[in-house]
Amino acid sequence: MKKKAKKTTYKAENIEAIPTRNMGFYEKYVKRAIDIICASAAIICFSPIYIGVAILVRFKLGSPVLFTQDRPGLIGEDGKETIFKMYKFRTMTDERDENGELLPDEVRLTSFGKWLRNTSLDELPEAFNILNGTLSVCGPRPQLVRDMVFMTDEQRMRHTAKPGLSGLAQVNGRNAISWEDKINWDLKYIEKVSFLEDLKIILSTVKKAFIKQEGITQDDMATAEDFGDYLLRTEKVDKENYNKKQLQATMILSGSDGIEREAGLVSIIMPSYNTASFIEETIQSVLNQTYTNWELIIVDDCSTDNTNEVVDTIKDCRIHYLKNEKNSGAAISRNKALREAKGQWIAYLDSDDLWMPEKLEKQIKFMEENGYVFSYTNYEEIDVDGYKTGVKVTGPKKITKTGMFNYCWPGCLTVMYDANKIGLIQIEDIKKNNDYAMWLKVCRKADCYLLDEILGQYRKGRVGSVSTHSIRTMIGWHYKLYREAEDMGILSSLFNTGRNLVFGFYKKKRYVRRQ
């Protein structure tokens, strides 16, 4: 559950960082153990209620039974909130108007849904959030992302404690108190997180939520008023800033990193290590492109040959030559280049491969005309001396997330995606298969489509390249990809490694053509 939660959480990149807070011994080491015990006990003891409510929801409101919503969680070391998926029992219908838009909350909230909320039974699934570590039993109640963006840096300090099923604000009025009071109670909680304070909150929550049912709704509204709407209504924020913050929330929820990218610009990512013999020809294939709106970001990983001298002879302001302080590998080099990229489009080219002159122009046209976010092309193989070997490689017309896990179909030199839709990609520091690690991340956000035309040349047989290593060595690399970059368990990593072997043989039979 914890690993699944990790894969569905993401960073609120498009927000300013704030100072972090040091946690005490109880909060850092003891609280989590109490959370696990309490959540496990609740699920076991109330399992008949879970089943009963789930059946009622399915019968009265339909499927899905669970409602998930992205909420701001604990602030990381970088001072930015993580966004996690919070689980609840569904309380509203999916009724829509003639334009397909959801009807207002008060229309979709049924009497059964109101009963679930009044009894707090809709929050029972949050016990699974506690088990996976995204929630705690006690802590500041997680608000909406569109509430978070309106908070000041001081108010966002509430996120330096793990959000809770209940907190001081909930036992001191819940939705019946003002936004300022709610946030002030949360800030008071983080001043001293202790076992006694949490115990008081738990006992008060049982009394107020399940016995007295206080403060469940706000002035008979179906849902509590958003923080931004409250600030706008009370004229504490103007309409312009209100709209700006709402847009920021939308960008965070879409996974946008908030980077302003130049429309139409292609950022070409090129890691380099000891390729002085080939890099000039590779750069020339970029200079020969019919599409001229590009930037080439070369990251030299401490080459020991004369790569820097070769690159220095090529004068073009679109070429940016960066150097690592120490030899770090292709993954770190690619991550560095991606952080420097300013373009809407991201393309990859290793420093010994080549592009056909119309590669960028044709691929961008293909994606724009079809509305694709992620694409790849066919390529052909050349040997160390640049002669064609007669091998041409293609792939599936469409690659879904499952298809990409089956095998790494795209050649690195053929891939392009829209960074405005995908966001900033950063991968774990694995020595090999790091391009595959990137495609697995990108394919979680968009399917990959094939431009069925040979637009690149892959140089095979160069000393140190992947193509020169044994199958046994590559099997080990695949295992590390799943175990380290994808953070899978041993059995899942072994299964996916075997899965890759099977589809690798299939690719050679189906998509590799020899003349």
TrEMBL record:
Q: Which residues cross the membrane?
A: 33-57
Segments forming domain Bacterial sugar transferase: 31-210
Q: Which InterPro entries match?
A: Bact_transf, Glyco_trans_2-like, Nucleotide-diphossugar_trans
Q: Which GO terms describe its molecular function?
A: transferase activity
Sequence ranges assigned to domain Glycosyltransferase 2-like in this UniProt record: 267-391
Q: What is its EC number?
A: 2.7.-.-
What the entry lists under Gene3D superfamilies is as follows:
Spore Coat Polysaccharide Biosynthesis Protein SpsA, Chain A
Keyword annotations of the record: Membrane, Transferase, Transmembrane, Transmembrane helix
- Family named by the database record: Belongs to the bacterial sugar transferase family.
* Protein name per Swiss-Prot or TrEMBL: Glycosyltransferase Family 2 protein
Per the UniProt entry, what species is this protein from, by scientific name? Ruminococcus bicirculans (ex Wegman et al. 2014)
